[in-house]
Structures are given as structure tokens and as C-alpha cells.
Amino acid sequence: MKKTLLIGSLLVIGLFVFWAYNNEYELRFVPNKPELRPPQNTSPSPKEMTEDFELAGGSERDNRGFPQRKIVDLSSMFPELFFREGSKNVKRAALTFDDGPDSLYTPQMLDILKEQNVKATFFLIGKRADLFPDVVKRMVNEGHIVGNHTWSHPNIVKLDNAAMLKEILDAEEALSKLTGYRTALFRSPYGSIDEKRIKEIRKLNYKIIAWNVDSLDWKSLTAEQVKYNILENVKEGSVILQHSSGSKEENLTGSVAALRDIIVTLKKEGYQFVTIPEMFNIPYKK
């Protein structure tokens, strides 16, 4: 009986290792216990309580699971179009933030970036930009780069082609009014994308940006957990994913609290922070 249990356990472990290897997991996960989640000390704007603020596809927690292996494969298939990491010969890293803007977390992120004299790339949701135009204008004025993260944050692989293109073009129009340019950078909500949609998005003259270091801050992690997930996995050419806003159930206080230490630590280690256009030598506007 014991021998059977041992063989069964080893088989399960072996299958898990095989699955993890094939999906190229690059992160060491840390506990996500509810009692470790940071307290939320400030209140959101009333605008963040409306339907206009909601993510069309639902929370990251309900939609994540797109395999890292698929992202690597797409990067190999479309090397001039789909980007996930920069040169491994230069100690540079790019901070990127998804799902903003808002009135709660995004301004705090911007305060820290300004204090540390670091420029980042923000992938913004069109309808949220309409709700908080001054935050978008602040990003531009402070030298950050703005990218397209669709109008309402749907899972685009669940949309037909016409609906997907409308999501992207509506966001492009909204963002261009606030930034003064039509962005040439696109990031798919949840990272979910496939070959067919990449080919369609290419027709809109976009570069598609993924990542290779995920903070997992959408899990409402503590600052220590966010720092661990980033600092233990950063390497030359890393594209780091954090969020400057999220769904209503996501608490990003820990991500905000971690940002300064992440920047200070990586600077001490000799990293230079660059924007996505600088990392890949690609245009940020059409």
C-alpha cells in the first residue's frame, strides 16, 4: 500500500514538473494568504464605483492562465512585431503598468516614479482614460509612454475580429485626444492573444508588447511578495509587469508600497530603467 502511494505521489510530482517546464514558469510563487494582504488606506473616486470603470472581461484572477510558453512561441514567430524581453547583453529593465488610469493607485505610482526619476510605460484602458483625463495628461507631461490596452479590457480571443478591432481603435481615439499622438504600442488584456489576432493587429500598425517578469500584484499581494516576485526574476532585458489599477476586488496597495524598493534595489545592482520604445528601439507613436 505504501509503495503504491509513493509511486502515485512521484507520478503526480513528475507530471507537475513536466507541465511547469512546458509552460516555462519563470516565477517562484509566494503565499497569497488573505491575512497577508495589505490594508487599503485610501478611498477610491466615486467614478471607480460606476459600471464605466469595470473591466469587460472580468478580473485578472478569473482570466489568467495564458501559458508563458505560448507567449515565448509567439515572440519567436513574430520577432519584429511581438516583444517580451530585450537584449540580454545590457543591464536594462522596463517597468510597465496595466489597467490604469485611476484616482487611487496610478497617481501614487507616478509620484514614486517622479521621485526616483524613472520613466515607465503605461498600457491604458480607453474608457478609464475618459474618466481620469488629468492622470493621463500627467503621465505624458512627466515623460512616460502610453500604450493601448483596449477600450474596455475584454478577453480579445473571445471576440470576433470586428469587435476586437473596435476595442483597439476606440481606445486609440480616446488616448490620442489626451496624449497628442496615436500610440503604436499594444498590450492584450490578460496577455491573451493568438496568431490570428496578431496578424489583424499588425494591420493597424501596432507593436505588441508582452512581458517576462510578472509581479502577480493582481493577487492583492503584500509589498514583500511583489518585491520577491520581481527581484528574484529580473535579468538583463526584463520587461516587468505591474498594475496601476485593477478590478474592484483587487488591492494594489502592496504593489505601490513595493515600487520604490524595487527601483532602488535594481539601481544599486546597476540596472538602467528604460521605456518600452527604448528597450526595443521601436516607435511609440504612429
TrEMBL record:
The keyword Amino-acid biosynthesis does not apply. It holds the Pfam family Polysacc_deac_1. Residues 91-274 form the NodB homology domain. One of its GO terms (biological process) is carbohydrate metabolic process. The keyword Hydrolase applies. GO terms for cellular component: membrane. Residues 32-59 are annotated as: Disordered. GO terms for molecular function: hydrolase activity, acting on carbon-nitrogen (but not peptide) bonds; metal ion binding. Keywords: Hydrolase, Metal-binding. This is Polysaccharide deacetylase family protein. It comes from Thermanaerosceptrum fracticalcis.
